[in-house]
Design a protein that fits this description.
With 323 residues, the protein is an alpha/beta fold. The protein folds into two domains: 150 residues, 2-Layer Sandwich (Nucleotidyltransferase, domain 5); 135 residues, 2-Layer Sandwich (Nucleotidyltransferase, domain 5). The protein has ten helices and ten strands. The strands form two sheets. Strands 3-2-1-4-5 form a five-stranded mixed beta sheet, sandwiched between helices. Strand 7 and strand 8 form a beta hairpin. Helix 7 packs antiparallel against helix 8. The protein is globular. The protein starts with a strand and ends in a 23-residue tail after the last helix. The structure holds adenosine-5'-triphosphate (ATP) and magnesium ion (MG). Magnesium ion binds next to helix 4.
Length: 323
């Protein structure tokens, strides 16, 4: 089995996955409540919490799988992109567990992890396919030809889709992180009530700053009581604009590369309107959309393990460009 670790943002996660992709356990401890009062993730607080949680979460993952460290053949850990301080906790824990158990370590790219959430049993998707990765930090269109990587076809020129959901939720007073809450509220609203802009960026890129500003101005133009009455309509219309942009570009990318299948991964793949709008796409199972360690262990199956002492030199990276 592979022990996966994930600490790139505010989820401390550990999972056990077999070599053939069966998830034996998948533990995610979210720190969202801890950061809620600040309206976003505070990196230093996240790192400190990861430090407290990482070993208990690993123990729980082992218990849940009814396994011991002896059953683990290698350790997989997220190396980046993410918050460097948060990543370092997972990376250091991974190195320590690997060293203690005389096991090799496999550094995993978090975005490759999101894609690899599709490679797990019971219904693994086989490349090639065209993939939309929409999360809190990224919005990417990917040409996936092999299990071990991808080529980027398009990206966002400003906010990520998840970030746009969270900022919209904040404007509507829904708290943090508000993407899922906005999704729930939108189900009670009329998506045609307001016409929010869908950016016309060139090629396969995305832009979400315009729709966010449009929501801000609309919210400002309404009186308190009016705002309360129209909240669900605003949420539904805002969600419609974001989902329309995502769906349009995914269809265009799929056609451009001549892919026969398309897929969606990342936290925003949990969005009900997006799932409904893409009946023919493969969408990651709900539990594997937002950050988790099963997807990290899954990605590790397609990467080379680094033996001792090589892995000790590994460092975390904050962004995709620094990888
Ligand atoms: N039902 C939903 N509808 C819309 N957005 C959602 C929903 N559920 C979760 N999200 C959004 O998904 C994002 C979290 O996804 P994820 O955990 O994959 O991102 P991240 O790890 O923070 O970013 P990255 O993977 O880019 O580093 C948040 O922005 C959250 O609001
Ligand atoms: Mg993520």
């Amino acid at each position: 089995m592979i022990l996966g670790l994930e600490t790139s943002c505010d989820e401390t996660a550990a999972a056990l996955v077999t070599d053939d992709g069966h998830v034996r356990s998948n533990i995610v401890s979210s720190q969202a409540a801890l950061h809620a009062r600040y309206g976003g993730v505070v990196p230093e607080i996240a790192s400190r919490r990861h430090l407290e949680l990482v070993l208990p979460v690993v123990k729980e993952a082992l218990q849940d799988a009814d396994a011991a460290l002896d059953d683990v053949s290698r350790i997989a850990v997220t190396q980046g992109p993410g918050l460097v301080g948060a990543l370092l906790i997972g990376l250091a824990a991974g190195k320590a567990i690997a060293w203690a158990g005389r096991r090799p370590l496999i550094p995993v790219d978090h975005l490759h992890g999101h894609v690899a959430s599709l490679y797990l049993e019971p219904a693994p998707l086989e490349p090639p396919f065209c993939c939309l990765l929409a999360s809190g930090g990224h919005t990417l269109l990917l040409d996936v030809r092999t299990h071990d990587g991808f080529a980027v076809l398009g990206t966002t020129i400003d906010d990520a889709a998840g970030e746009a959901f969270d900022k919209g939720a904040r404007l509507l007073g829904l708290g943090y992180p508000g993407g899922a809450e906005l999704d729930r509220l939108a189900r009670q609203g009329d998506p045609e009530a307001y016409r929010f802009p869908v950016a016309r960026t060139s090629g396969l890129d995305f832009s979400f700053s315009g729709v966010k500003t449009a929501l801000l101005y609309t919210v400002r133009s309404l009186h308190q009581t009016e705002l309360a009455e129209r909240k669900a309509d605003l949420a539904a219309s805002y969600e419609r604009a974001i989902v329309t942009a995502l769906v349009r570009r995914l269809l265009a990318a799929t056609e451009q590369v001549g892919a026969e299948r398309m897929a969606v991964v990342g936290g925003v793949a949990a969005n009900s309107e997006l799932r409904r709008s893409l009946p023919s796409a493969r969408i990651a199972p709900l539990a594997l959309c937002t950050d988790n360690a099963a997807m990290i262990a899954s990605a590790a199956r397609y990467r080379e393990a680094i033996p001792y002492p090589g892995y000790l030199a590994l460092d975390a990276y904050a962004s995709r460009d620094a990888a």
